[in-house]
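Supplementary Methods. Inverse-folding protocol.

Structures were first reduced to a discrete structure-token string of length 415. This string, shown here, constituted the complete conditioning input.
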């Protein structure tokens, strides 16, 4: 499939998380390089990074003709369907994949009459029907739709569930012509990249810090893997501090890691720089480090006494933690998504179950009040409760609900 971008409409000075509007489109399309045969940019796109030119076939041209005439001419010469994009738009990148997987001519658009935006998928036979005097892609889509030459692409046929975010998000389209609109888009994109079910601190406490870090990092084009590596350093630097009983500096490192753990994922998705290596580093760290912290907490509390009850409790804590992860893996292996997407109650429980970002503030309170050991016992007990809950929910879903023969639940949480 080919892609046509009307760069003449793109405000050259606007940036969304450090990317020009044209570069955003190209970075999203570069992920589909195997299915996109050519990208035609009509107008001056400005300087483009060399890595994009290597990943997709980009051709630039310029013309003073209206957008409708230029698109009609390009479509008439194409031997493949064409996706048409306005250069001043923010397009949900999932729509590109959806348009590759659908058939026929169609248009996806927003419902804002005062700020219209649309994405077109056009077959070659549509070329003579395009209004050549139309000045924008939105106007082309509106006229083709009004005259019945294309069908509307609706939210009902769009696969809105995002497994990595554990939420359903309808597709979005915006027109961005000034700094205020760009700022509003950044806010929307930032919040749309939060998970539908997560812990209390990630959902309510960290976002202001994450927002203040993501924007300058994106503008400086810092790769998210650099943030992940910094997070790894803080994670393992905290372990000997905890073990030595230096809890305050250890906790500062731990909270720094916890915030950066939210930053790297947002930065990657908002700048189209997520990678398999980054995902492995990020998720691998999330799984591996909590037991190290728990054992180090107990070692520091016990003064290095292996026989101390609190240290023995940390060994049990590690066992319960591993068992909990294994239980959660059962649902994921069957349904292809996390247990906390199954129903609203599961998403709600995810807010405060035993996880690092719940146990860390609990332990902090214990250390600061002089009840570190007692609070650690409470954390171990909470891990047991969490394990029992997850095991019970898994049994209920697979046995009591009879585990209907389908690959995904009918209504995932967050829909």
């Amino acid at each position: 499939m080919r892609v046509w971008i009307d760069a003449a409409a793109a405000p050259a000075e606007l940036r969304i998380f450090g990317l020009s509007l044209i570069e955003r489109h190209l970075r999203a399309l570069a992920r589909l390089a195997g299915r996109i045969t050519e990208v035609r940019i009509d107008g001056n796109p400005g300087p483009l990074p060399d890595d994009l030119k290597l990943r997709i076939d980009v051709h630039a041209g310029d013309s003073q003709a209206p957008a409708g005439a230029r698109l009609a001419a390009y479509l008439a010469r194409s031997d493949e369907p064409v996706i048409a994009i306005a250069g001043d738009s923010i397009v949900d990148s999932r729509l590109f994949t959806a348009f590759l997987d659908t058939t026929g001519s169609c248009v996806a658009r927003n419902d804002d009459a005062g700020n219209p935006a649309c994405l077109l998928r056009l077959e070659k036979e549509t070329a003579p029907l395009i209004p050549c005097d139309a000045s924008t892609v939105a106007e082309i889509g509106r006229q083709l739709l009004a005259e019945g030459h294309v069908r509307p692409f609706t939210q009902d046929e769009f696969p809105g569930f995002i497994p990595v975010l554990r939420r359903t998000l309808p597709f979005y389209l915006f027109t961005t012509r000034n700094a205020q609109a760009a700022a509003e888009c950044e806010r929307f994109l930032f919040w749309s990249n939060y998970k539908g079910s997560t812990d209390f601190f990630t959902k309510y406490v960290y976002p202001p810090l994450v927002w203040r870090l993501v924007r300058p990092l994106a503008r400086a084009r810092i790769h998210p893997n650099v943030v992940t590596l910094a997070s790894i350093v803080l994670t393992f630097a905290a372990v000997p501090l905890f073990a030595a009983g230096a809890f305050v500096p250890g906790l500062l490192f731990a909270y720094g890691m916890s915030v950066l753990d939210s930053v790297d994922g947002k930065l990657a998705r908002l700048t189209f720089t997520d990678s398999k290596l980054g995902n492995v580093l990020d998720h691998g760290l999330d799984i591996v480090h909590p037991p190290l912290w728990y054992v180090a907490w107990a070692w520091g509390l016990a003064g290095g006494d292996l026989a101390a009850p609190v240290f023995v409790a940390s060994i049990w804590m590690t066992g319960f933690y591993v068992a909990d992860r294994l239980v959660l893996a059962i649902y994921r292996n069957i349904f292809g998504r996390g247990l906390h997407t199954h129903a609203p109650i599961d998403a709600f429980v995810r807010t405060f179950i035993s996880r690092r970002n719940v146990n860390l503030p609990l332990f902090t309170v214990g250390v600061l009040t002089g009840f570190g050991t007692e609070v650690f016992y409470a954390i171990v007990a909470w891990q047991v409760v969490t394990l029992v809950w997850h095991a019970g929910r898994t049994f209920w879903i697979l046995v009591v609900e009879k585990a209907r023969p389908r690959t995904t639940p009918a209504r995932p949480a967050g829909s």
